[in-house]
Design goal:
The protein has 25 helices and 6 strands. By secondary structure, the chain is mainly alpha-helical. A hairpin with a 2-residue loop joins β3 and β4.
């Protein structure tokens, strides 16, 4: 009862912290680093505490959770200074993964080290603690799902009698989060009480059955590789991710096969031979993943994503080499793999902490790589990914842009034009489709010359093209070069007042995309698109409204304006119409 109460209370406080993080803290402070610190502290404390309380006495679990939370909060907060905002830091994704590893990996070590035996690296205890924690978490999650299903049914049932107490209770903002945490903690406590029944033996045994299948797939892949060649394997992170995913699955299956000790390991000769064979071939998958990433790096240089990929690939190569070495030695090969698991897990923990520490600044390393490639002439000014450097790689990237601007390289003028476009662009698409001022000016002149404007005497307003995307302007110019069935240019513009919601006239642009299709676009006088869904045909055959002959019809002067003939149903400030 005491453990249930403690974990239920801890879960409720965790839920309250989550609610406060979303609803209260942003109102108290706009400093996103404070919000990040609060979120990190809550995650690094409550998660491990709920996992360790039960296997450990409550006070020891509290001390262990606090020992995890404090340094990780400091590391995450200081690492976020690589970016102008903590939001940009978190959005890269890598720090979140590193933090999760830095929180999760120490939990089994703390359970083993702070337990009665005090043996931090005892594999049997580490193996049991890791799997038991996973099973407790899954059981608590299923219990939480069942609770909310029952809550929904109960609310519906009571609603039949007009009783709305559950709905009233859940209307209090913090209640759903607090209840969720409380139920999750209670579920974790009950799962610990029934550890003899809620055992990891079932998932371990099921995973062991997959060992021969994984062996067959790996063997087939490696056997076919000499005949298929390596060309399709390298140059893409998705390929490396597939290789790493299979290597991770193979390492997990071998780990389940050898279990916590020799007495619990698989006894079937077929299963043991499968585990040995898969261990021997695991380095092949992992090293191919390493080579795949390095090939990508040799082509494009380092980026934070490629640094993360090579980190994961090297870790898996560590697993593969140690597993294969243990099997080749033969003597006590399972014990050697268990020892390797402990060592590699500590290595992963060190890497996770490094990613959120000054020792491994992925953005700085990536920026240094890209600038160096440009200085060495290995990448041109056009080939530099300036958007990633300046907008996604934090303060190191911004500093690199200033250094690039000062470089006296052969492509200096091109680089300067791209830097100017980057400063004005509000999205990657806008930057990548931007054109130098001279090209924009040439496009504007060409379109004005080639585009007839209706009614007679009307012109496209000054500044009409200032905010228009270059890609649309290029498409417009290309349309003007085509000819309609009547021999007219494949573009025309109509100036008319069609929308009472906006000031001034609108410009409707008809552009001939092909011999069979006309696109209609609507802009205001500044070249900004108007209309919630763009221009919409209220009537007419779609074959006629998209036919290039439509441009000839406009050019003939058969154009008029008038009310659409719709009557609206007004509901306060809302209007409802039925489109014909």
């Amino acid at each position: 009862a005491r453990l249930r109460g403690v974990l239920a209370l801890a879960g409720a406080l965790a839920g309250l912290a989550l609610w406060a993080l979303v609803e209260v803290v942003p109102r108290v402070t706009e400093n996103d680093r404070v919000i990040l610190a609060f979120a990190t502290a809550a995650a690094a404390f409550f998660g491990p505490f709920l996992a360790m309380a039960g296997p450990l006495p409550v006070l020891r679990a509290l001390g262990g959770a606090a020992a995890l939370a404090v340094p990780r909060t400091l590391l995450m907060t200081t690492a976020s200074l690589r970016f102008d905002s903590a939001e940009g830091f978190v959005e890269t994704g890598h720090p979140v993964v590193a933090l999760m590893l830095a929180i999760a990996i120490p939990v089994p070590f703390l359970i083993a080290g702070l337990g009665r035996s005090g043996q931090w690296t005892d594999y049997a205890q580490l193996f049991g603690a890791a799997w038991a924690t996973l099973v407790r978490g899954v059981a608590a999650g299923l219990f939480l799902g069942a609770f909310w299903e029952l809550d929904d049914l109960s609310d519906t049932l009571l609603g039949l009698d007009g009783v709305t107490v559950i709905e009233w209770l859940l209307d209090f903002d913090a209640v759903p989060a607090v209840l969720s945490g409380l139920v999750l903690g209670l579920g974790a406590a009950v799962a610990h009480e029934l550890a003899d029944f809620v055992s990891p033996k079932l998932p371990i045994r099921l995973l062991q059955l997959l060992l021969p299948f994984a062996l067959a797939v790996t063997a087939l892949f490696l056997a076919a590789l000499p005949f298929q060649g390596l060309e399709g394997l390298f140059g893409g992170l998705s390929v490396a991710a597939t290789l790493m995913g299979m290597a991770f699955a193979a390492a997990t299956l071998v780990t389940t096969a050898i279990d916590a000790d020799d007495g619990a390991a698989v006894t079937s000769r077929v299963m043991r031979l499968s585990a040995q064979a898969l261990s021997r071939w695991l380095p092949g998958l992992a090293l191919l993943a390493v080579y795949s990433v390095t090939e990508r790096v040799s082509q494009y240089g380092w980026s934070p994503d490629r640094l993360a990929a090579i980190t994961a690939a090297v870790v898996l190569a560590g697993y593969g080499i140690t597993y294969a070495g243990a099997v080749l030695v033969q003597t006590e090969w399972m014990a050697r793999i268990r020892q390797a698991n402990v060592i590699v897990a500590l290595g992963v923990l060190a890497l996770g902490l490094a990613w959120i520490s000054p020792f491994l600044n992925a953005q700085q390393l990536a920026v240094t790589s890209q600038v160096s490639r440009y200085q060495q002439g290995r990448v041109s000014a056009e080939g530099l990914d300036l958007w990633a450097i300046g907008r996604q790689w934090g303060r190191p990237g911004v500093a690199a842009l200033l250094d690039l601007e000062a470089l006296g390289t052969p492509g200096r003028e091109v680089l300067r034009g791209r830097l100017e476009a980057l400063a004005e662009a509000d999205s990657r698409y806008a930057f990548e489709t931007a054109a130098p001022p001279e090209e924009r000016l040439a496009l504007m002149r060409a379109i004005r010359v080639a585009t007839p404007v209706h009614p007679a005497g009307a012109v496209l307003p000054d500044g009409f093209f200032d905010t228009m995307g270059v890609s649309f302007m290029q498409m417009w110019r290309g349309a003007c070069a085509r000819q309609t069935p009547g021999g007219a240019p494949g573009c025309i513009a109509v100036v008319a007042e069609l929308s009472p919601a906006s000031d001034g006239s609108e410009i409707i642009v008809f552009t001939m995309q092909s011999d069979r299709f006309v696109q209609v676009s609507a802009f205001d006088g500044r070249g900004v698109t108007v209309g919630r869904f763009g221009p919409t045909w209220l009537s007419g055959d779609h074959t006629a409204t998209s036919d290039p002959a439509l441009i000839d019809l406009v050019a003939s002067g058969a154009v008029d304006t008038g009310p659409a003939g719709l009557t609206a149903l007004r509901l306060g400030d809302m209007e409802l119409v039925i489109l014909p």
